[in-house]
């Protein structure tokens, strides 16, 4: 069997997403697939765009900004999904119109000084390990309120990564419950950015509006540098 190309994998995963959506009575058009291209070079992103990908995700500013600079001719929306330091926040907002990893007050304060607006998701930490990205559930309400009083950020919803060692269905049920805390304050923040290569079917069943899929489409990532 010939090796699947990136284009083949994109088509196959897109078909699987459509099937998984229909299986739970959802319209696949309500789901945005963000292809996470971290550690992969610009030509791979170009190939994906030629295959019809319109949303790409990155997790490291230096790498992402260099790649973006090579690809400004493409019709792509760039999403930032990685841990974000406040001193990089404004620079990231130069090329990413969506940030999925808002998780602390200092980052929001920096984004408040932008001259344009961006879309944001609050990342929730489901692990209880403060070293991981994401706001702790205890601080979720306060961060939501801070973002709501920041005109440069349009709050779209919440984002989370299912922890290792917990069935994704259980993790996603917790996210939905925490999402309700946000919705009580921000009724239009209906977005749910959950679902990666290993758990996007469960995420679709749990109501995901945004999937962040890397390796299932890009293939194995080259080693981190
Ligand atoms: C890398 C990454 C993904 C994609 O992971 P895969 O398992 O390769 O699909 C999704 N979300 C975040 C936050 C990531 O860092």
Topology summary:
Blueprint: H1 6-23, E1 32-36, H2 42-50, E2 55-58, H3 61-70, E3 77-80, H4 86-95, E4 98-102, H5 105-111, E5 118-123, H6 140-148, E6 153-159, H7 168-185, E7 191-193, H8 200-205, E8 210-213, H9 215-218
Parallel strand pairs: 1-2, 1-8, 2-3, 3-4, 4-5, 5-6, 6-7
Helix pairs in contact: 4-5, 6-7
Pyridoxal-5'-phosphate is lined by residues 36, 38, 59, 81-82, 161, 196-198, 212-216.
Rg, Å, rounded: 17 Å
Helix content: 40-55%
Based on secondary structure, the structural category is: alpha/beta
Low-confidence stretches: none
Protein name: Pyridoxal phosphate homeostasis protein
Keywords: Pyridoxal phosphate
GO molecular function: pyridoxal phosphate binding
Function: Pyridoxal 5'-phosphate (PLP)-binding protein, which is involved in PLP homeostasis.
Features:
globular, 40% helix, 225 residues, 9 helices, binds pyridoxal-5'-phosphate, TIM Barrel, 8 strands, eight-stranded parallel β-sheet, alpha/beta
Describe the structure.
It is a single chain. Helices cover 40% and strands 17% of the residues. It is of the alpha/beta class. The chain has one domain: Alanine racemase (TIM Barrel). The chain has an 8-stranded parallel sheet. β1, α2 and β2 (55-58) form a beta-alpha-beta unit. α4 (86-95) crosses α5 (105-111) and α6 packs across α7. The two termini are 32 Å apart. The mean pLDDT is 96. Bound molecules: pyridoxal-5'-phosphate (PLP). Pyridoxal-5'-phosphate is lined by residues 36, 38, 59, 81-82, 161, 196-198, 212-216. Residues 36, 38, 59, 81-82, 161, 196-198, 212-216 line the site of pyridoxal-5'-phosphate (PLP).
């Amino acid at each position: 069997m010939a090796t699947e190309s990136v284009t083949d994998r994109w088509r196959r995963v897109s078909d699987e997403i459509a099937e998984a959506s229909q299986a739970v009575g959802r319209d696949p058009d309500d789901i945005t697939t963000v292809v996470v291209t971290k550690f992969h070079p610009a030509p791979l992103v170009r190939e994906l765009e030629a295959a019809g990908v319109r949303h790409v995700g990155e997790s490291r500013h230096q790498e992402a900004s260099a790649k973006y600079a090579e690809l400004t001719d493409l019709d792509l929306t760039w999403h930032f999904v990685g841990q974000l330091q406040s001193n990089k926040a404004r620079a990231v907002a130069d090329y990413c119109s969506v940030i999925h990893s808002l998780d602390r007050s200092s980052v929001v304060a920096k984004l408040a000084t932008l001259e344009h607006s961006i879309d944001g998701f609050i990342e929730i930490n489901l692990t209880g390990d403060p070293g991981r990205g994401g706001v702790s559930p205890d601080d979720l309400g306060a961060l939501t309120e801070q973002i709501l009083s920041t005109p440069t950020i349009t709050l779209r919803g919440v984002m989370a990564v299912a922890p290792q060692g917990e069935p994704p269905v259980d993790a996603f049920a917790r996210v939905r419950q925490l999402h309700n805390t946000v919705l009580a304050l921000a009724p239009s923040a209906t977005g749910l950015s959950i679902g990666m290569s290993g758990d996007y079917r469960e995420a679709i069943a749990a109501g995901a509006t945004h999937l962040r899929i890397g390796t299932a489409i890009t293939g194995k990532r080259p080693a981190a540098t």
